[in-house]
Backbone:
C-alpha cells in the first residue's frame, strides 16, 4: 500500500478509490441527585497493598465478559490498538467487558487496589491513550450492539460499536448518524471528542445526535446522563474527550435520513495551492449545508498536490463543484464525479484499506477564521518543505460550519462551534522508526508555527504528545475541570492526556 493510500484511508478521501449483535436499551437508574441517583454496590474502600492472584481470580469470577492477563491466550491481540507503534504496551489485566456491570466491577477493582486504569473502545487514539503498561484496561470494545428502534428513529449503540458496522446497520432502514469516516473507530471514543465527518454540515457533529449516555462513574455506579439527569456530566461528555469523566457503556442517538451522495473530486497543480485553500475558505461561507467539501494538501515525492473532495446530499455535486472552481479562480487539472447510494458512499469514504492497522503521527490546529494570503503561503510552504525532503504528509482542512457550527458554544463541551475548520497534520509511517517518528513530529511542529496566528486550539480527537491539554478545550477548560473533580474526586481517570 502506498503512503498516499494510507492517508486516503485516514480521512476518507478517495483519490485511488474512485475508480451484531443487538443490545437491549439500557435501563434508567438515575432519576435523582448525584448521591442517590445511582445503582450498584456500596462505596469503594481503597487498599494500598495491591491485588493478589486470588483478588484477580475473584474479579474474573464476577465478570460476564473476560479478564485477560499477561501470558494468557488472547491477551496479546487484546493489547493491539489501531496503530502498531503501541504494540509494546502490556497492562496487568484487560477486562473485556460484556456489559455495564462488568465495567463497574473492573472500575471498583482498580479503585480498591489503587491500580491505574484506562478505558478503551475502538483503540484509535492517536497517542495510544487507551493502552498502557501499568494497570488495568477496561475494554468496552466487545459492547458493540446496535439496536435501531424504528418507532422513535433512535439507535442504542454499545460503546465499542464500530462506525462501519453502525452505518451498515442503519442503512438498512434508510437512516444515518453523522460520524467520522474510519470504519473501525469506536462509537464512544469518537463521540466523546465531538465527531467530525462528511455529514457534519448537514446533521451536526456525532455528539449532537446523542440524547442519552449510560456511563459508569469513578465510584463504580451506573448512571444515565442526558438533558435532564446529570446535566453537567452530559454537557462534559459531548466534546470533553475520552477517558475523562466516566466510562461510557451505551449511547442513544437520534438518526437522520440517509441520502444518495453526489461526490466530486477536484485537483490542481501545486502552484495553485494558495488559491485553492483561499477559494475553499470563501466558498464555505455560502455553501449550502447539504454540501460538504474538505481540502487536502499532499506532499509526495518532491511535489505537492492540492485537491478538494466534496459531496452533495441532495444533488449530483456538479453545482457545488462549479461554485468551488469559481471561488478558486483557477481551472483544475482534473475533475471527476461519482454517484453513490448512501451505503456505497460510507464505504468509499472509509477507503479500500480502512480496516487495516497502520502507523502514523498526526496533530491538529483549529482555524478560527479564514487565513489570509501570507498565512496560506506559510502553510503551503511547510508542506512543500516536507515534500522537498522526500517525505510524504498531508495537511487536511475539514469544515466546522453548517449544522456543526449552529449550536451555541455553551451548549456542550465542544469548544469550536464558531471556528472555520479543523486542520489536521498527518504523516503516514509505513516504517515507523524512531527517526521517522521524530521527523514527522518536527514537521507537525513547523505546521503549528506556520498557522499560529490563526490557530485557536486543537481537536481533542487528534491528541498529540507535548501539547498542553488545555489547548483542546478553549474557554471550557475551567468548567470541565470542575466537572471532572465532581465526578472523579480521587482522580481515577487521571492520565497524561486527561483534564485532571
Ligand atoms: C484512521 C483514523 C481515522 C479517523 N477519522 C476521524 C474522523 O473522520 N473524524 C473524527 O472526528 N475523528 C477521527 N479519528 C479520531 C478518532 O475519533 C479518535 O481517535 C477517537 O478518540 C478514537 O476512538 P476509539 O474508541 O476508536 O479509540 P480508543 O483508543 O479506544 O479511545 C480513545 C480515547 O477515549 C477513551 N475511551 C475509550 N472508550 C471509552 C469509553 N467507553 N468511555 C470513556 N472513555 C473511553 C480512551 O481512554 C482514549 O482516551 C480518526 C482516527 C483514526 C486512527
Residues:
Amino acid at each position: 500500500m502506498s503512503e498516499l493510500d494510507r492517508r486516503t484511508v485516514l480521512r476518507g478521501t478517495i483519490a485511488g478509490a474512485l475508480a451484531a449483535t443487538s443490545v437491549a436499551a439500557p435501563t434508567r437508574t438515575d432519576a435523582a441527585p448525584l448521591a442517590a441517583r445511582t445503582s450498584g454496590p456500596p462505596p469503594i474502600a481503597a487498599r494500598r497493598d495491591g491485588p493478589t492472584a486470588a483478588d484477580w481470580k475473584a474479579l474474573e469470577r464476577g465478570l460476564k465478559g473476560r479478564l485477560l492477563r499477561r501470558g494468557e491466550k488472547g491477551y496479546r491481540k487484546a493489547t493491539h490498538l489501531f496503530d502498531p507503534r503501541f504494540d509494546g504496551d502490556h497492562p496487568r489485566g484487560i477486562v473485556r467487558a460484556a456489559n455495564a456491570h462488568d465495567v463497574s466491577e473492573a472500575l471498583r477493582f482498580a479503585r480498591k487496589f489503587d491500580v491505574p486504569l484506562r478505558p478503551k473502545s475502538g483503540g484509535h487514539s492517536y497517542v495510544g491513550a487507551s493502552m498502557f503498561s501499568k494497570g488495568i484496561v477496561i475494554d468496552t470494545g466487545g459492547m458493540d450492539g446496535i439496536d435501531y428502534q424504528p418507532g422513535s428513529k433512535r439507535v442504542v449503540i454499545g460503546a465499542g460499536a464500530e462506525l462501519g458496522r453502525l452505518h451498515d446497520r442503519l442503512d438498512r432502514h434508510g437512516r444515518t448518524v453523522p460520524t467520522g469516516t474510519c470504519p473501525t473507530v469506536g462509537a464512544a471514543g469518537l463521540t466523546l471528542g465531538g465527531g467530525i465527518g462528511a455529514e457534519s454540515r448537514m446533521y451536526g457533529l456525532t455528539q449532537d445526535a446523542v440524547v442519552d449516555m449510560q456511563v459508569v462513574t469513578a465510584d463504580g455506579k451506573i448512571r444515565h446522563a442526558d438533558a435532564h439527569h446529570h446535566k453537567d456530566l452530559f454537557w462534559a461528555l459531548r466534546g470533553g474527550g475520552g477517558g475523562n469523566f466516566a466510562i461510557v457503556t451505551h449511547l442513544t442517538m437520534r438518526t437522520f435520513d440517509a441520502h444518495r451522495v453526489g461526490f466530486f473530486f477536484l485537483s490542481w497543480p501545486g502552484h495553485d495551492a494558495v488559491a485553492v485553500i483561499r477559494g475553499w475558505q470563501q466558498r464555505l461561507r455560502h455553501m449550502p449545508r447539504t454540501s460538504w467539501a474538505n481540502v487536502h494538501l499532499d506532499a509526495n515525492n518532491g511535489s505537492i498536490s492540492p485537491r478538494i473532495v466534496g459531496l452533495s446530499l441532495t444533488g449530483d455535486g456538479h453545482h457545488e463543484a462549479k461554485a468551488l472552481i469559481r471561488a478558486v479562480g483557477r481551472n483544475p487539472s482534473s475533475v471527476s464525479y461519482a454517484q453513490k447510494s448512501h451505503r456505497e458512499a460510507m464505504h468509499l469514504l472509509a477507503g479500500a484499506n480502512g480496516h487495516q492497522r497502520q502507523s502514523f503521527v498526526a496533530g491538529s490546529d483549529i482555524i478560527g477564521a479564514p487565513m489570509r494570503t501570507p498565512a496560506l503561503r506559510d502553510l503551503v510552504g511547510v508542506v512543500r518543505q516536507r515534500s522537498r525532503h522526500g517525505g510524504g504528509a498531508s495537511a487536511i482542512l475539514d469544515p466546522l460550519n453548517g449544522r456543526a457550527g449552529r449550536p451555541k458554544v455553551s451548549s456542550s463541551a465542544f469548544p469550536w462551534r464558531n471556528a472555520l475548520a479543523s486542520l489536521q497534520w498527518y504523516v503516514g509511517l509505513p516504517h515507523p522508526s524512531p527517526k521517522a517518528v521524530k521527523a514527522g513530529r518536527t514537521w507537525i511542529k513547523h505546521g503549528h508555527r506556520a498557522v499560529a496566528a490563526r490557530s485557536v486550539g486543537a481537536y481533542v480527537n487528534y491528541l498529540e504528545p507535548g501539547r498542553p491539554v488545555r489547548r483542546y478545550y478553549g474557554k471550557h477548560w475551567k468548567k470541565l475541570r470542575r466537572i471532572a473533580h465532581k465526578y472523579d474526586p480521587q482522580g481515577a481517570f487521571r492520565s497524561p492526556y486527561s483534564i485532571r
Observations:
- The CA atoms of residues 104 and 183 lie 28 Å apart.
